[in-house]
């Protein structure tokens, strides 16, 4: 019965993570680069949990040729999380050749498992006996733990730095987004500590006492479930980010009370002032539901106000405000070192293709 319950929980984790991963791959709202990184994180994490599910359920044991199916990409999880945070906080950031160092180990891990999978039975047996079992799996586990916490720490430091900068600049929605990311990383860190404790415990007990804890009924359950809990958390946060209002408003208004009197007593004119003073259109995640939640005005009322004042729909008005910012930055000497693509992303466009489409429509 316990096996069935654990297997069902792992199936739910894989299914939900895989679903949200594909949602982020095709998602149009939000920074495209951040969406892709979050999608990779969810999809690769789901494959890792799927690997645990197949091993846990004993599905692979009768099929030796399938035992080396490449589903294990643990070294990719840290970099994917790190770049999701980085692109979310800095949409205009462009990958540089120096960022290649983050992808060396993930690519090496993937190439290794794919090479083993396509090798013959004898080569697989030799690799397992002389390389994977006695050495590499332990080394890989150490690398996973080290790099996961390294990237969690780097992500958290980026968030804290962004918060310090935003406090001086005074755009509350940026601070609010950073707080949301901060809590995502904090709780993921706690879950990672729980999961890592099982890895360390198994390593120490097996190597120094000679006991195989996986022969103890229930130990493998806790290890698999603690790993799946990390995926459950990321899946839930991804769902919030994609379909909910996501950002906590009570924190932003405490920190920026002088800038947001309208938020407590909304008015029609205040809605347009908010776009001018708070630059909420620069947030690529902005949508009518989030604006309604922050302003306490019903979505239909917001649409009607915008249509009456500007003659445009909400998406059209949002695009117009972003184009205004884009063109103003192009004429500003402060941005002369930035590419038009980078300026467009900074102006709130989800991607360079969205910017080009908006520019094409503006000249029609």
Q: Can you tell me about this structure?
A:
The chain is mostly helical and 364 residues long. The protein has two domains: 247 residues, Rhopdopsin 7-helix transmembrane proteins (Up-down Bundle), CATH 1.20.1070; 103 residues, Arc Repressor Mutant, subunit A, CATH 1.10.10. The chain is 73% helix and 0% strand. It is built from 15 helices and no strands. About 4% of the residues have low confidence.
Q: Would you kindly provide a brief summary of this structure?
A:
The chain is mainly α. The protein is 73% helix and 0% strand.
Question: What tags apply to this protein structure?
Answer:
15 helices, 2 domains, mainly alpha, Rhopdopsin 7-helix transmembrane proteins, about 375 residues, Arc Repressor Mutant, subunit A
Record the SSE blueprint.
Layout: H1 2-26, H2 32-56, H3 77-89, H4 104-118, H5 121-169, H6 172-209, H7 219-243, H8 249-255, H9 261-264, H10 268-277, H11 288-295, H12 299-310, H13 314-330, H14 340-346, H15 352-362
Query: Any idea what the shape is?
Result: elongated
Task: Give the CA-CA distance, first to last residue.
Answer: 65 Å
CATH topology of the largest domain, by name, is Rhopdopsin 7-helix transmembrane proteins
Q: What is the quaternary state of this protein?
A: single chain
Give the domain tally.
2
Mean pLDDT: 86
CATH class of the largest domain: Mainly Alpha
Helicity, in percent? over 70%
Secondary structure class reads mainly alpha
